[in-house]
Specification:
This protein is 27% helix and 7% strand. The chain is α+β, with helices and mostly antiparallel strands.
């Protein structure tokens, strides 16, 4: 007589299989998440490289002068004047920036009730509204610092070590960084001489403006046109490197650095301990 037997898993075997799957998921999910983040970082870096090409083409057509970063209402900002060379607003959007998706199909910022210079207010009629994932160094393009005009390529002593564009927030800073409660600033420029404050409530503090989404790193474009990812603290003149922003209010001026350091001078390499502390605090608050 043939016995009819049913094959199946015992409870212990099922629990072992479930435990193995859970262990594999715990190992692989963070790997997948890091891979996705790395892909977004590379995409963002590619954006900056394309913006760099637009900047270089603009300077070649403009007597080797960079565009102005933050401009009065009758003028375009840097992002708008290089748009004819870039020809896509998507290049201005970092996929890791939560504000990038707040730019709607009719060229209006939806990030806040009062759109700013990268959006629809204070830009010349007929010019292209631009998402605000990136900001230009005011040391190079601010008319307030440079006598009403931007700097030329020839006026920058070490173009491979001076920041031209960096990632930044596009809307209310307080909604992005814990402890920051400043209202939205103009979103086209960054790097004022007083942006070296470690106080999260201070206006124009790096801690509230610079965006560091890529596992403690930020993508930067330099004035020679190359782009790379760096820890923000390494841009402030530490470990024998130059200060890649220029001369801040708190830059060291002692005998170790005999070259005069004038506030707002992009060629100033002197370290700024207060700025370094602010950048470190920003890194500590960033994801990853």
């Amino acid at each position: 007589m043939q016995r009819n037997t049913k094959l199946g898993f015992t409870l212990i075997e099922l629990l072992v299989v479930i435990a193995i799957i859970a262990i594999l998921a715990a190992i692989l999910f963070p790997v997948f998440a890091k891979a996705r983040e790395k892909a977004r970082q590379i995409s963002c870096l590619s954006n900056l490289k394309q913006l760099g090409l637009g900047m270089m083409q603009y300077t070649q057509d403009s007597d080797e002068s960079f565009p102005r970063s933050n401009c009065p209402p009758d003028r375009d900002n840097w992002a708008q004047v290089i748009y004819p060379y870039v020809k896509s607003t998507n290049v201005y959007k970092c996929p890791d920036n939560p504000d990038a998706g707040k730019f709607d199909s009719v060229n209006h910022w939806t990030a806040q009730p009062n759109p700013t210079w990268m959006g629809q207010t204070n830009w010349q009629p007929g010019s292209q509204a631009i998402p605000a994932s990136y900001g230009m160094s005011n040391f190079i393009g601010a008319f307030e610092l440079n006598g009403g005009h931007a700097l030329s390529q020839a006026s920058i002593n070490a173009p491979a070590s001076k920041i031209l564009l960096a990632e930044r927030y596009g809307s209310n800073n307080g909604s992005n960084t814990p402890g920051c409660n400043q209202p939205p600033a103009n979103q086209d420029g960054m790097g004022w001489t007083d942006w070296d404050q470690n106080n999260p409530s201070a206006q124009y503090s790096y801690r509230c403006e610079l965006y560091v989404p890529h596992t403690k790193q930020c993508n930067f474009l330099f004035t020679d046109g190359h782009a790379r990812a760096m820890r923000p603290v390494n841009t402030t003149g530490v470990n024998g490197q130059p200060n890649m922003w220029g001369c801040m209010n708190g830059s060291i001026t002692n005998t170790q650095y005999p070259t005069a350091c004038t506030n707002g001078d992009v060629n100033g390499d002197n370290p700024d301990p207060t700025q370094t502390a602010a950048m470190q605090a920003l890194e500590n608050a960033s994801p990853g």
